[in-house]
Write a sequence for this structure.
């Protein structure tokens, strides 16, 4: 069914037992506090984070005149870089690499492991470590079923 319709029906909300607020940690996993000793928290329940991210998408890609396939490719690359930067900031031990080319990092990880028998980035998960499935991750259309049928 249409994702937008499901969202408006209230079917996409907080999951039971899922924590939306967690204490901020530094790169070593130590809890962060402000200058008064108060714990710093990140909350993903509000719409500020997604709205800021969507504003960045509109600012970056809003004036580009590209086709559907190119737009999809650009959004996939942007998503990869965004997720990696968030992981660098929020996941203790995650390597800060200074680039977003996951495939080169995967290759480097495999070569170092084969040649020297250790993992260069122990907290890094290589794409090759996962079995292939029919599952895909892509852009989800929010238009109606009727419009989708007309487009296709």
């Amino acid at each position: 069914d249409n994702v937008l319709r499901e969202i408006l029906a209230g079917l996409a909300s907080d999951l039971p037992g899922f924590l939306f607020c967690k204490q901020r940690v530094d790169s070593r996993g130590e809890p962060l506090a402000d200058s008064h000793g108060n714990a710093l928290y990140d909350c993903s329940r509000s719409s500020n984070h997604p709205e800021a991210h969507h504003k960045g998408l509109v600012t970056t890609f809003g004036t580009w005149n590209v086709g559907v396939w190119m737009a999809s490719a650009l959004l996939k690359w942007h998503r990869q870089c965004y997720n990696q930067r968030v992981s660098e900031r929020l996941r203790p031990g995650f390597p800060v690499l200074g680039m977003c080319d996951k495939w080169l990092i995967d290759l480097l990880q495999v070569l170092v492991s084969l040649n020297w028998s250790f993992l260069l980035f122990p907290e890094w998960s290589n794409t090759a470590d996962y079995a292939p499935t029919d599952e895909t991750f892509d852009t989800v259309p929010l238009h109606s079923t009727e419009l989708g049928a007309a487009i296709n």
